[in-house]
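Researcher: Structure prediction, please.
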Amino acid sequence: MKFEPYEIGRLDKDGANIRLCGRVIGPASGPHIVMLASLGRPGSDFDEVARALAEAGCCVTLPEPRGIGGSSGPMDGLTLHDLAEDVAAVIGTQAHAPVTLVGHAFGNRLARTTAADHPALVSRLVLLACGGLIEIPEAALKALMGCFDEALTADERLECVRYGFFARNNDPEVWRDGWHRDVMLMQSSAVRQTPVEDWWEAGGQPMLVVQALEDAIALPANAHDLKARLGARVTLIELPNAGHAMLPDQPERIVSAIRAFIESRK
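Model: Predicted structure follows.
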């Protein structure tokens, strides 16, 4: 999956032309999955997981947020509802709805907003690092912001990546790059402008919640709250030896969990 993102959707809203780019891999006849990346991060974070799912017969769409990979549009004054319209446009153009919508970290908030706003487009949700309710500890928040701080040295930023995103003894080098400050600021503002209750329980679809036990940012209490609130609608899987990044820490376990969840809901 080395090819570059290409246009996978367009949206005209309030006089603005929004161009949505990304990649689609796997057979069109397979179950359709759309994956939404973490805060200020590209869709390529999912590559290892997406490749394995495509090889298993799934059709996987990896959209890029505005500001990455050719995706463009207004970046100011947005809410998660605006960004959910981008996701809906991609699903309407590229995928066979309803889809399995996978969101990692920030992407889990966007996935839940999309499901709440456009329930006919989403059959089920997979939430990886499903934070948003329990406050991020101060040290972890400092590390998160440090990942985007260009005033820090490369090694200082890598230490922030290690502390905020990776389990003990796991190598953060794979996420040394890929931090887009302008996109982070846009997405963070959208989160602040959107009440948590708009998206926390999503749109009524079943959810798979994959919780890393060494996540310093999306604390396990978030996943436990969702399970306690929604009961049988939530399947909870906990991953040892995984941090907030999760995807490079435990890709095989994540692929296995997603495949089993899709099969169980046919």
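Model: Residues 143 and 160 are 4 Å apart (CA to CA).
Researcher: Thanks, that helps.
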